[in-house]
Amino acid sequence: MINSKGCLALLMFCAVLSWSQEQAPTNTPAVEPENTQEVTTDTVRMATPPPVSNADYPTQTLSQERSDYLLLGLTFQAAYTDNLLEGIGTKPVSDIGYSVWPSIALQETTSRMQTLLSYSPGFTEYQYTSSRNEVDQNVSASFQYRLSPHVTLSLRDTLHKTSDVFSAPDVVSVLPVSGSALPPTLAVIAPVADQLSNTAGAELTYQFGRDSMVGASGNFNNLYFANSGQISGLYNSTTQGGSGFYSHRLARRHYVGATYQYQNVQASPLGSETGVLGFDTTTQTQAMLGFYTVYLKPTLSFSLSGGPQHYDISGAGLPSSQAWKPAATASLGWQAHHTNFAASYARIISGGGGLFGAYQSNSANGSIRQVLTPSWNVGVDAFYSIYKEVDPNLASLYPGGHTVGGSASLQRRFGTRWNAQAGYTRLHQTYANIAAVSTFPNVNREWISISYQFAKPIGR
């Protein structure tokens, strides 16, 4: 079992190994280029395959990506929601919200380090339901540093404080596409409810041979709902975990390996909520997964992973429950000049995300971005999840349910600094024991926005 101290010790051990390595040339591709004739050990760095990486798939096309910039922006949005107060009253309440988001972002890349920081506060005022007016905070930071030619440290942290998960300037950030088997940040989506989500992770990789790599990582997630009256039936959760992996490269583009993953998830009722049980539950999972990734192109990959997973759930004043279950993931990522596509599927045992106890989840989500012309682009996102309680002591009280939704948007650029966007989001959730979504399970949201962005190149 890997706890936080064990994960830290493994990270430090890999860091110590790095100091004996010599300096390597910069700008070395993660995937070996096709036209390379002679390649030495020091000039070909391995990629970290999606099943063992902390990073999500990118959401922009290559033509939309920037590097080394300071970005300042301001976004105004008007959105109509047909079910603003889920689980409250005898009929759905609709309203129009007006939002404004200033933003600042900084990205800088050097031969050994890459830094990305962004901050976007926001304010939303509703035309009729003033009690749901909100102030949002969106902060993200990622840092990657090459300690030596073969050792890389990656850190990331994301914080969202909001009353409406779909009111962010970037709807894609609500449910990002990942290739790894991690617990969902949100299992049940409460679109309009005061909530705080913080996700952090650290990863250290060491390429000790031309085609061999090991790595260790730790992750943390906290989901907190501030008002039990808004989300009756949902639970706060804290997730801590760690993993270690071995990866071997075959025939330049093929990666195989194995990973061990440990997660500890604690779900607890809100302070003012007195549920049927009224106690915390702790879910611990351990998985041994083999994985395979093929890089068909440097920016096109396909991954599979699978293996046994053990869970142990305790608490709530009930006997503990343990069992073995199969776990599996599949993912595809493609980033081209005018197209970006990412999709994933995961079958795992987990907890948290707003649910109580431990559940078997089958989830799939995908995202596509297409640049139509230099001025026009479109985006489509879709997600589907089924959650089923695995503890027989809790199954009758918390059977689980499913979530399905999608979003489509159209964007038009005006020059280099202005753009307008229109979009539609549809969400359907079925959870019989969660009053916050069971009474009126459908949410439809339409929005239009206009943004101004000023980008200043730096370090040039």
How would you describe this structure to a colleague?
This protein has a single domain, classed as Porin (Beta Barrel), CATH 2.40.160. A hairpin with a 7-residue loop joins strand 3 and strand 4. The chain is built from two helices and 18 strands. The chain is 4% helix and 58% strand. It has 460 residues and is mainly beta. The protein is globular.
Blueprint (SSEs and pairs):
Layout: H1 4-18, E1 69-81, E2 95-109, E3 113-126, E4 134-148, E5 151-164, E6 192-209, E7 212-225, E8 236-250, E9 254-268, E10 281-297, E11 300-315, E12 318-335, E13 339-351, E14 358-371, E15 376-389, E16 400-414, E17 418-430, H2 435-438, E18 442-457
Antiparallel strand pairs: 1-2, 1-18, 2-3, 3-4, 4-5, 5-6, 6-7, 7-8, 8-9, 9-10, 10-11, 11-12, 12-13, 13-14, 14-15, 15-16, 16-17, 17-18
In summary, what is this structure?
By secondary structure, this protein is mainly β. Helix content is 4%, strand content 58%.
**What is the H/E string?**
HEEEEEEEEEEEEEEEEEHE
Strand content: over 45%
Instruction: Just give the CATH class.
Output: Mainly Beta
In the CATH hierarchy, the third-tier topology is known as Porin
What are the defining features of this structure?
disordered N terminus, 2 helices, 18-stranded antiparallel β-barrel, mainly beta, Porin, 460 residues
